[in-house]
Design goal:
By secondary structure, the protein is of the alpha+beta class. The protein is built from eight helices and seven strands. The chain has a five-stranded mixed beta sheet. Helix 5 (103-113) packs antiparallel against helix 6 (116-129), helix 5 (103-113) packs parallel to helix 7 and helix 7 (135-145) runs antiparallel to helix 8.
């Protein structure tokens, strides 16, 4: 499922982005399969030791050499990620149906990341899609994420976002 700046182009206020973030429906134990797929697609892993890097970060950064485009392949293991992938919206790109994060899941990803650029992206999605958003779904997962250390205020941030946008 495509997340990050590319998904913001679908659901939020357009902005310049030079990379692609993809959440995989796979845990880090499937790294050998992912590396084989990358080789087939001509994508080159950036870390010298992909196994150690993925074990530490759950991310495999790769690059498409002809274009220089970086792609971050994000391994997933949580029930939330499985649900978000199942909810992904297929959008045609160059004749292929590509799964993009639903607007609600993009908002949740952005709020969880919490960087200023991510919060701006979340505001843009709410401004553009606010009345269409499933606020019960957003509140449910924000409450779940509030149990994660450092994310205790996520429900309050979500409500403030809703009222401001």
């Amino acid at each position: 499922m495509v997340i990050g700046g590319q998904a913001v182009l679908v659901h939020g206020e357009p902005r310049l982005t030079q990379d692609v973030d993809v959440t995989l429906a796979a845990g880090p134990e499937r790294l050998p399969e992912v590396l084989t797929l990358c080789e087939t697609l001509g994508l080159e892993p950036l870390p010298e030791d992909p196994r150690t890097f993925v074990q530490r970060s759950y991310v495999l950064p790769v690059v498409d050499p002809p274009t220089g485009v970086r792609v971050d392949l994000i391994f997933s293991t949580t029930p939330y990620e499985a649900e978000a992938i199942a909810r992904a919206q297929r959008i045609e790109v160059a004749g292929e149906a590509v799964p993009f994060a639903a607007a609600e899941d993009l908002v949740l990803h952005k709020l969880f990341a919490g960087r200023p650029r991510d919060l701006d992206d979340a505001v843009g999605v709410v401004r553009r899609k606010g009345p269409e958003l499933d606020w019960a779904y957003l509140r449910r997962w924000a409450a779940e994420f509030a149990h994660v250390e450092g994310r205790e205020t996520l429900p309050e941030v979500l409500e403030r976002l809703r009222s401001e946008a």
